Amino acid sequence: MVGDKPRTEAYRAAIEASRHLFQDKVVLDIGAGTGILSLFAAQAGARRVYAVEASGFHELARQNAERNGFGDVVRVVHGRIEDVTLPEQADVIVSEWMGFYLLHESMLDSVIVGRDRFLAPDGVMFPDVARLYACPSTLAAFHCDQLQCWSRPYGLDLTAVGEAARRSMQQAPQVLDTHPEELLAAPELMLELHLQYVTPEELAAVTCRRFVTVTRPGPYRGLCLWFECQFPDGSRLDTAPRAPSTHWRQTAVVLPTDYPLEVDTVIGWELTLAREAGGGRKYRIALSMLDEDDEHPVPCGCAVGKCRLIKALIDKEDAECDEG
Amino acid sequence: MVGDKPRTEAYRAAIEASRHLFQDKVVLDIGAGTGILSLFAAQAGARRVYAVEASGFHELARQNAERNGFGDVVRVVHGRIEDVTLPEQADVIVSEWMGFYLLHESMLDSVIVGRDRFLAPDGVMFPDVARLYACPSTLAAFHCDQLQCWSRPYGLDLTAVGEAARRSMQQAPQVLDTHPEELLAAPELMLELHLQYVTPEELAAVTCRRFVTVTRPGPYRGLCLWFECQFPDGSRLDTAPRAPSTHWRQTAVVLPTDYPLEVDTVIGWELTLAREAGGGRKYRIALSMLDEDDEHPVPCGCAVGKCRLIKALIDKEDAECDEG
């Protein structure tokens, strides 16, 4: 992960900003890789860091710890977090577990196992919150690169190639870089995980319906997904289109055809993320478009009169509660 | 291949420049993919194009031919060139068969089979010559990205990561973009294939020794390989560092450590490209450094006195032959 600077720097800054959580504490680094997070924890004053790594990288983690004078602090444990034994509980669990659109090929299940096995009752997860966002997008740059450029190069009609590419994309989400101007509405929060409490059962399948009001006109070609992770100090690792690009980039679920959208149109979708059969780390995405007349969630942030009314009432109640 | 513009454009320009070879002729496109080369051949006036494609792309090739009004000219044949039957011999064989460093994962064996089965006695191969070049390189950009940047980020000593990466690269050549300024000498021709005559036996293993005189000082970190293909009109598809980047980029064989080189130093190497056991399309590269005292090839372009003398004599004889 060292090569992905926004990612590594987010962890480094967050750990440094939370020295009080690490000072003289026991830290568990799950899926430590080359051990960079363990070194940050050691730099922040941890008394002991257990760096658990199942792959051959464990040897590198050990060398890195030794060359940085943390050979006594960082104990590299070669094995799966599901199998290893540790001599004590951890005050903090650090882990860089996130997959594409948060869940796909993530190590979250292992982090949960590690938490349930080794985190002290008042221990801290690092990061402690993860959020998945979605937003309708023109996918303009991707569309030009991968689909549209086939239309008439060399005086030839190669539209069949673009059509076939788009059909094949229905089977698999696309990892791509999104420009903020490609987004057609305000991003919607699809999922919020509190790492202290989340269970594997909650992650088996996640479905949510959303309606948004279009704020920028353009062809709606797919739903763009990204995530952010929040650390206990409130800082975040953000993989949004507006943030510096990470190796996760963003993920798009490409629609079969373009839908031209006008400002103030209300559009809805239902998105399901379901773990693939077989208990692996892969997810499948199902996206369906909703009619404006389909049932909206409560509350809903779209511009339909009923939703605005409900939201105003809820906001008023919240304000009164806060005052009370 | 449509998305790789230098590649597609080289074929398009060469076919257009050789209309006389295509006009009213029978053309065989081996490994046609989506059929772009077949369309170029049809545009150049071919009477009939057989587009042989083993994969599911054959359907796209058919659609592309129909949508461009060449449904009657281009006959898409679904199958392996080793298995298909064609009703007539071909005047021209076009194919985009080249792999990384020319031979690795190439389709050259299939092209040779197609040539031996279907090319008319006075038929033309398109391209007709392929050349592999090698040159010692600093691999500067790659080194900075993949190796050196690990040295001291975040105030940490992560040199172990760079060392491990370099060790792992000994097992596998690296595909990368080389800047012309990274080259430490004039490129050396390692291999020249004449497609009209080359046999699979010649391609089983290729070994060559070369000595070069260093023309630019710098750390020698690996041998950079690339190829060019030449068409009958003399035009070329060039994948050299100085040429526009293609999907092949260049390939580097990374040395275990850096060798600082001064201008006018003579360095030598022996490079072997050997087909992997099992008869597949993969090659293995073996590179060994030679001492200046090891036997030089004849002629040799390096600055050692004996080599310069021999080369001068050969050049003189050639000049006299030309005059005679």
From TrEMBL, chains A, B:
PROSITE patterns linked: SAM_MT_PRMT
Organism whose genome encodes this protein: Amphibalanus amphitrite (Striped barnacle)
Name this protein carries in UniProt: type I protein arginine methyltransferase
Methyltransferase domain span: 27-123
Residue stretches making up the Protein arginine N-methyltransferase domain: 129-288
Catalytic activity: L-arginyl-[protein] + S-adenosyl-L-methionine = N(omega)-methyl-L-arginyl-[protein] + S-adenosyl-L-homocysteine + H(+)
Gene designation: PRMT6_1
Transmembrane segments: none
InterPro entries per record: Arg_MeTrfase, Methyltransf_25, PRMT_dom, SAM-dependent_MTases_sf
Recorded superkingdom: Eukaryota
GO biological process, one term: methylation
Molecular functions per Gene Ontology: histone methyltransferase activity; protein-arginine omega-N asymmetric methyltransferase activity; protein-arginine omega-N monomethyltransferase activity
SUPFAM superfamilies named in the record: S-adenosyl-L-methionine-dependent methyltransferases (SSF53335)
Pfam families: Methyltransf_25 (PF13649), PRMT_C (PF22528)
Keyword entries, A-Z: Methyltransferase, S-adenosyl-L-methionine, Transferase
Keyword NAD carried by entry: no
CDD domains the record matches: AdoMet_MTases
Enzyme Commission number(s) of this protein: 2.1.1.319
One GO CC term, this protein: nucleus
